[in-house]
UniProtKB/TrEMBL annotation:
<dbReference type="InterPro" id="IPR004606">
    <property type="entry name" value="Mop_domain"/>
</dbReference>
<protein>
    <submittedName>
        <fullName>ATP-binding cassette domain-containing protein</fullName>
    </submittedName>
</protein>
<keyword id="KW-0813">Transport</keyword>
<keyword id="KW-0547">Nucleotide-binding</keyword>
<dbReference type="InterPro" id="IPR027417">
    <property type="entry name" value="P-loop_NTPase"/>
</dbReference>
<keyword id="KW-0500">Molybdenum</keyword>
<feature type="domain" description="ABC transporter">
    <location>
        <begin position="1"/>
        <end position="226"/>
    </location>
</feature>
<keyword id="KW-1003">Cell membrane</keyword>
<dbReference type="InterPro" id="IPR003593">
    <property type="entry name" value="AAA+_ATPase"/>
</dbReference>
<keyword id="KW-0472">Membrane</keyword>
<dbReference type="InterPro" id="IPR017871">
    <property type="entry name" value="ABC_transporter-like_CS"/>
</dbReference>
<dbReference type="Pfam" id="PF00005">
    <property type="entry name" value="ABC_tran"/>
</dbReference>
<keyword id="KW-1278">Translocase</keyword>
<dbReference type="InterPro" id="IPR008995">
    <property type="entry name" value="Mo/tungstate-bd_C_term_dom"/>
</dbReference>
<dbReference type="InterPro" id="IPR003439">
    <property type="entry name" value="ABC_transporter-like_ATP-bd"/>
</dbReference>
<dbReference type="InterPro" id="IPR050093">
    <property type="entry name" value="ABC_SmlMolc_Importer"/>
</dbReference>
<dbReference type="InterPro" id="IPR005116">
    <property type="entry name" value="Transp-assoc_OB_typ1"/>
</dbReference>
Length: 344
């Protein structure tokens, strides 16, 4: 699939070009309002762009109605037809295509998603995880040339999500069709996607292999969903100078004088009330904005967006309160320095 769209709606403008290869799964991430859903709607034909093109399987689809595009959609909610059985729901696509073997196709896909035993039930008799399995079977039974997944695991509870995630991975990997998935979950991107695209304000600001983007992010949003700290600035010898003029020592291959980012884990940050002078580590003075549980640890958030994870015992010993100034300290060996445009 090759697509390029330009769209302006009031103060919002989208200008995106992307290619998705056969069998490739691309995750699209970004803050609310960045244009993720708009991009999916443009591809699906639910929104018409001001300019651009969309090619899929050798066809130009820009003027093609949604139901003739050969595109499947799996949304947050299963959106099953409530008056039909599970089997009839999955049959709907191939039946509409006048396939004589529509029942065989539906049964095969229900078996593929481990939902064959549910064939005779109505949607109201299904759990959330079961309904999403059926919705996936229904989307794939129409044999789409492209799959769109709009946060397909968001509405599932913590028990159902892992099973459906594993199912999606298995089914998507078995298909030689492109797929585009919108998600806010780093785990979904790592498990399901080959490549990650980061959208901000209607533009692609970062893209690359999923693991590279989420372990060496170059945009603030990618760092946030990966649970990492990110400081932007200009690369210097042995590190990075932030926009505030603070030099952060770190390891990386970026050339001197480039726009860059320093990235480090909240778990690598030690917290001190006073500056530990004489230490070879980075010491950043911050003001605490809040404290919250984070697994077995306490996550401290600074008003500049940085975070530190410390034990409850350490938090009690420091007697911290929001609004206080403290020092976030991190070893240079824990900081990665990368060129800011390296993923685009």
């Amino acid at each position: 699939m090759k697509a390029e769209f330009q769209l302006a709606r009031g103060a919002f403008a989208l200008d995106v070009a992307l290619t998705v290869e056969p069998g490739e799964v691309v995750a699209v991430v970004g803050p609310n309002g960045s244009g993720k859903s708009t991009l999916l709607n443009l591809i699906a034909g639910l929104v018409r762009p001001d300019a651009g093109h969309l090619q899929l399987g050798g066809r130009d689809l820009l003027g093609t109605p949604p139901h003739q595009r050969g595109i499947g959609l799996l949304a947050q909610e299963p959106l099953l037809f409530p008056h039909l059985t599970v089997l009839a729901n999955v049959e709907f696509g191939p039946r509409a295509q006048r396939r004589a073997d529509h029942r065989e196709i539906a049964l095969r896909w229900l078996e593929e998603v481990d939902a064959l035993a549910l064939a005779g039930r109505r949607p109201r008799q299904l759990s959330g995880g079961q309904a999403q399995r059926v919705a996936l079977a229904r989307a794939l039974a129409a044999e789409p040339e492209l799959m769109l997944l709009d946060e397909p695991l968001t509405a599932l509870d913590v028990d159902a999500a892992p099973a459906v995630r594993g199912l999606l991975r298995r089914v998507l990997r078995a298909q030689n069709r492109p797929a585009i998935m919108v998600t806010h979950d780093a785990l979904d991107a790592l498990v399901l996607a080959d490549r990650v695209i980061v959208l901000e304000a209607g533009r692609i600001v970062e893209q690359g292999p999923a693991r590279a983007v989420l372990t060496r992010p170059r945009s603030a949003f990618a760092a946030r969903i990966a649970g990492l700290n990110l400081v932007a600035g200009t690369t210097v010898e042995g590190g990075l100078r932030s926009s505030a003029g603070v030099v952060i020592a770190g390891l990386g291959s970026a050339g001197v004088g480039e726009e860059g980012v320093a990235v480090f884990s909240p778990a690598a940050v030690a917290v001190h009330r006073a500056n530990p002078h004489g230490s070879p580590r980075n010491a950043l003075r911050v003001r605490l904005a809040g404290m919250e549980p984070h697994g077995d640890l306490i996550r401290l958030r600074a008003d500049d967006g940085l975070a530190a994870d410390i034990t409850p015992a350490a938090a009690a010993e420091l007697e911290l309160e929001p609004g206080e100034q403290v020092w976030f300290v991190v070893k240079a060996t824990e900081v990665g320095v990368h060129a800011a445009n390296g993923g685009v």
